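One such shown below:

_____
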Amino acid sequence: MLIVVDPHSGVPVYRQLMDQIKFHIASGILKPGDELPSTRALSSELGVNPMTISKAYSFLERDDIVERRPGRPLVVKAVGGGAIRDRRIEELRKSLAPTATVVKQLGLTDEEAVRAFAELLESTREPRDGGDADNEPDNEPNSGPDDGAADEEVSRA
């Protein structure tokens, strides 16, 4: 499990730990039943006070994210499928919040922002069946003056 803390970020270290552990769970890196590093081990690895790790773990336990077992490491708590999706959506919302602010600051419409986001999603989509993406631009008629756009489509694939 990769956790990086930045003591100069302005976000409390315990909060950084909580957010990263939640993200690891939402993304599937940590699965239900997986053990978290001990307070002492994580403290040593990150160079952080053990009380800071303990505080983050206590808040995660309070939020029903992890389960404490006496004498054993904390484990990621099992949740239903809907709760996993809710956690993923929440992580996405947190990541997009600064972007929404930028959209408003730039004076873009919601439609322009959604179109730009959809284009980004499309550019990160992996081709299916080993090469279908190469056939997609061939389905669209080539208008001539926009040859550069067609070249851009091929270079992204």
The CA atoms of residues 111 and 117 lie 10 Å apart. The chain has seven helices and two strands.
